[in-house]
Description:
Elements: H1 2-14, H2 19-48, H3 52-98, H4 112-164, H5 168-203
Helix pairs in contact: 1-2, 1-3, 2-3, 3-4, 4-5
Amino acid sequence: DRQVHEVQSYMGRLETSDKESVHLVENEIQARIDNIFSNLERLEILSSKEPPNKRQNAKLRVDQLKYDVQHLQSALRNFQHRRYQREQQERQREELLARTFTTNDSDTTIPIDETLQFNESLQNAHRGMDELIGSGTNILQGLRDQRVTLKGTHKKILDVANMLGLSNTVMRLIEKRAFQDKFLMLGGMAVTCVIMFLVVQYLT
């Protein structure tokens, strides 16, 4: 919990950091997230060795921490994506302002209004594609999070079923449902990827 709160505190510094220090803050956050994931793997192994009456609560606690850290990772990626988009727009504006236009040769003269309009349209197209890619990335990350949650829930159900001594028939029904949910999730991910590909192909 303490490490998660520390990462949340660092996340609050991102919006106020200047261009020179924002990369350092991002690297520090990523290093702390990686460290938490590493600790969670060890906790997961330790929780499996707990007595049966404590094992369920330990696993639930580890799964909750893992869910919180995955959301922090997604928030960091979204911030980096927005920062990259802003920096790209600034570079495009600087390149446009630094560009020189020739007036001696009428055949090579570039109308400024048309150039500005073209550049604005290009930026709008880039923004649209970036937003679509960002949305698709968030959807895929959400599906991955759901997959982790489903796997954790499946393990919990099996543990509870073993403790309660449920019949083999009920166990098979539970496993069949989890198998179907897995294919539904994979199908959703495939449809999302196809839609993103078609949209990018259409815009470009």
